[in-house]
Design brief:
The chain is 35% helix and 16% strand. The chain has helices at 20-35, 52-55, 65-68, 86-99, 119-126, 142-157, 162-176, 228-238, 260-266, 275-288, 305-315, 323-328, 345-348, 356-368, and strands at residues 3-6, 44-48, 77-80, 105-112, 203-205, 208-209, 219-226, 246-255, 297-300, 382-389, 394-402. The strands form 3 sheets. The chain has a 5-stranded mixed β-sheet with strand order 1-7-4-2-3, with helices on both faces. A 4-stranded mixed β-sheet has the order 8-11-10-9. The chain has a two-stranded antiparallel sheet with strand order 5-6. A hairpin with a 4-residue loop joins strand 10 and strand 11. Helix 4 (86-99) crosses helix 14 and helix 7 crosses helix 11 (305-315).
Length: 404
């Protein structure tokens, strides 16, 4: 991982007079500068994006690479879609090309514009990642309803207290205060916001309230991935040791039926609500030759507080159904046993859907190279990411560590 760049997730591109292509070009150019790479060094391009056709009327986003630099006229490119895991799937495609020996240096972009339409329309567009016409038809806001159902499922199986969900939100908003790219870094909350207060924290759908929700965000992130030989040459040129770079040492990728109900019914006798999420997590660790004891931090999907609650036990911080223990004892906080979302996560930092998987990896690389600034987890050398699309229809997890 040779570096990259992330846009400021507090920006609203349409209000600035920018469109999706403008943001794409600006992000990649900033990334090239940040990584000290020339455009003509890049051999392949991949972009993760979920719903540009719906939000911006734009498809064929791989063609945006050709707008960045004349050297990229002819660059092989592709666009990848897996709902909120689109960025991670784009990374998987780039790494597969590198491992196959086709190319040595890839540019991976994750991007989504979501704030150019009214909120209810945005919710409708995002609902395309559910099983359209078959589930949640009675919901005005599909995903708040889906993850309200997940909270209900945890409550049915194990018991669930709302104060634990709100502590997740409070931690993520607090971490975001340290992040100069966070959408909510300037937001101000009182303790009452993190309660079932119908004024300060109104119900959105079912058990899901406003403070349970991740953000609707315009944002992009770019990452440059190299083969070992190309990374070694890059390190020599920069005059830095190869071991100072971050690398992806493991990956897990699993899919499940698009139906939320089918997933939950299939796991009725399993201790984990989403077995494929657990398998993706363990696959990544197995490929990296590591276990949870060697993980120093996690960047996980928290599109809603219930999603992170699920992630905590699926990651193995606690036994199934006991995520509340890691919340109560401070394990997931900065300075805790295994800090979760030091960046602020999707709740605090923001969730431009197609960009999230790439952003997670970029933040993980910063952590293991000591470049995370005020979000730094002291001594972090190995970070796991967990990125899901839909109601865990697609799950991707990576292990990122120092090259040595």
């Amino acid at each position: 991982m040779l570096g990259g760049w992330q846009s400021d997730f507090a920006r609203n591109w349409s209000r600035e007079g920018s469109d999706l292509a403008d943001a794409f070009v600006a992000t990649v150019r900033q990334g090239l500068d940040a990584a000290a790479l020339d455009a003509d060094e890049i051999e392949t391009g991949h972009v993760g994006n979920f719903a540009a056709e719906l939000f911006a009327g734009q498809g064929l986003i791989g063609g945006f690479f050709g707008l960045v630099d004349p050297a990229w006229n002819g660059l092989p490119t592709a666009r990848h879609e897996a709902a909120c895991a689109s960025g991670s799937v784009a990374v998987l495609a780039a790494t597969a090309e590198i491992e196959a020996g086709r190319y040595d240096l890839a540019c991976v972009v994750g991007i989504e514009q979501m704030r150019n339409v009214p909120g209810r329309m945005a919710a409708q567009h995002l609902g395309a990642a559910a099983w359209t016409g078959h589930e949640f038809a009675d919901a005005e806001f599909v995903w708040p309803r889906a993850f309200s159902d997940l909270a209900d499922e945890y409550d049915r199986r194990y018991g669930l207290r709302y104060e634990h969900l709100m502590r997740i939100a409070e931690i993520n908003f607090g971490n975001a205060k340290r992040n100069p790219n966070a959408q909510t870094r300037g937001h101000h909350f009182t303790p009452a916001h993190f309660t079932a207060d119908d004024i300060l924290n109104p119900v959105i759908e079912g058990r899901t309230r406003k403070m349970d929700c991740g953000q609707v965000t315009d944002g992009a992130a770019v990452l440059f991935l190299a083969s070992p030989a190309r990374a070694a040459a890059y390190a020599r040129r920069r005059g830095v040791p190869l071991e100072s770079l971050a690398r992806i040492s493991g990956w897990g990728h699993r899919s499940a039926p698009i139906s939320y109900a089918a997933k939950v019914q299939a796991s009725a006798d399993d201790p984990y609500v989403f077995p494929q999420v657990r398998r993706a997590i363990l696959d990544a660790r197995a490929r990296a030759g590591t276990d949870i004891a060697a993980i120093d931090a996690v960047e996980t999907h928290d599109c809603f507080t219930a999603t992170e609650y699920m992630a905590i036990d699926h990651l193995g911080l606690t036994d199934p159904g006991k995520s509340w223990q890691a919340i109560e004892d401070g394990s997931i906080e900065l300075g805790g046993r295994l800090p979760v979302n030091p960046s602020g996560g999707l709740i605090g930092l923001g969730h431009p859907v197609g960009a999230t998987g790439v952003r997670m990896l970029l933040d993980a690389s910063k952590q293991v190279t000591g470049a995370a600034g005020a979000c730094q987890v002291e001594g972090a050398r190995r970070v796991q990411t967990l990125n899901i699309g839909g109601s865990t229809t697609t799950t991707v997890s990576f292990i990122v560590e120092r090259a040595a």
